[in-house]
Design goal:
The chain is mostly helical. It contains four helices and no strands. The mean pLDDT is 92.
Amino acid sequence: MPGSLHVRNLDDDLIARLKRRAARHGRSAEAEHREILRQALSSEIEPGFEELAAELRKLTGRRKQTPSQVLLREGRDER
């Protein structure tokens, strides 16, 4: 399902450059904007689960971890 994206607070110079680029390619500014986003994101590789898990471990490695059984017990006691 197609969605919408609104971009606010763009510099006037950037908007003018987008319109000139769109004119060179024979597209509307909106179509040019879509194409720029498509090109920029199509070359980006989505990380897999293992990469995301490793990143999360690195971010949380120094934090104190509470065992799940302790959290479950605390949750039951609060009821």
